[in-house]
Design goal:
It contains six helices and four strands. It is of the alpha+beta class and 167 residues long. The protein folds into two domains: 50 residues, Arc Repressor Mutant, subunit A (Orthogonal Bundle), CATH 1.10.10.10; 75 residues, Alpha-Beta Plaits (2-Layer Sandwich), CATH 3.30.70.920. Helix 2 crosses helix 3.
């Protein structure tokens, strides 16, 4: 977030509503926060142009689309030279199965969240794609048995204020 962007309680309320209801109309958003539609629209445009609101998107149900497997893959690089790291980043960015990738601390260098349709797809991904990237030393895979909690909403409002803003 930009150091120049000052957020007030109303901005946080707008952000909280939008991250849970991205398709809400400006009129309904204005009604919910008790602000005029032009004032709400101006605040929203400021939040978007600042880069604080990065994108709007539809969240899809991966299982309904046939992606039965969700896995976390820990990767350790053999060498941490800039060219190996850059190559790893480029390769992973071009793998559609990888939906998230993080450079992490601890026993591994990277944590990848991957989706697969079947066990064989996971095997092909691990053997034919990931382990063939130059510099990949160790790979450890965990298959998700059950998703206990999945959210993309940030806890930006105290619980009581968040509930008060709802319908």
């Amino acid at each position: 977030m930009s150091n120049h962007l000052k957020l007030d309680k109303m901005d946080f309320l707008i952000l909280d509503i939008l991250q849970n209801e991205g398709r809400i109309s400006n009129a309904e958003l204005a009604r919910r926060i008790s602000l005029s539609q032009p004032a709400t629209h101006a605040r929203l445009k400021r939040l978007e142009s600042s880069g604080l609101i990065r994108s709007y998107m539809a969240l899809l149900d991966r299982e309904m689309l046939g992606f039965e497997m969700l896995c976390f893959v820990h990767v350790t690089l053999e060498k941490h030279q800039p060219d190996h790291v850059k190559n790893f980043h480029m390769q992973v960015e071009n793998m559609p199965e990888v939906v998230e990738c993080y450079h992490v601390t601890g026993d591994y260098d990277y944590l990848l969240k991957v989706v697969m349709r079947h066990r064989r797809d996971l095997e092909d991904f691990l053997v034919d794609k990931l382990s063939r990237i130059a510099g990949v030393g160790r790979v450890h895979t965990s298959v998700v048995l059950r998703e206990v909690k999945e959210t993309y909403a940030l806890p930006i409002l105290p619980e009581a204020e968040s509930k008060a803003g709802g319908s």
